[in-house]
Amino acid sequence: MRDLREAEYYRKTSETEVKVRVKLDGSGIASIRTGISFLDHMLKSLSSHSLIDMSIEASGDLSHHVVEDVAICLGEAIRKALGDMVSVRRFGYAIVPMDCSLAFAAIDLSNRPYSKIDLKIEGGHIEDTPREDIYHFLETLANSLRANIHIWVQYGLNDHHKVEAAFKALALSLRQAVSIDPLRSGVPSSKGVL
Hints:
194 residues; alpha+beta; four-stranded mixed beta sheet; 4 helices; 10 strands; globular
């Protein structure tokens, strides 16, 4: 029988305080309080569609610092919950439409951080979140999760819908990547390590 795949990560700096708890084999239950409405909305969507239960509490001096540190803590918590990576599928991908927008995502939990993100955002902000902070969140998540993440929006007329489609595509990709492959008994790498 496998260990429970859940973890907590806590980070306190002179700029922020962030507490994250994740349960990989959850049902998508989210309790998110970052003080940034659009980020909360995207994280709830990420939890709901990945089926990873997430509890996130964050506060800080500047919203940019909160966005960055939530991404750091979320990536670290998921990585910690993955443990030794034995039998994990490792790869995931998805295509998600949302009204006028279509987004693609692919992820490899390779232990080699890299991100390529193209959200085609045209405005400076979406709700209460600057455009660059949305990119920064996704790039920081890839680094802290030590994952290779590619996300691109093919088209769309509404910036909110573009980003929401992208987070949903990431969620479905993450759901596949963290799931257990019953046919695999070891680490998902021809090298024997990740």
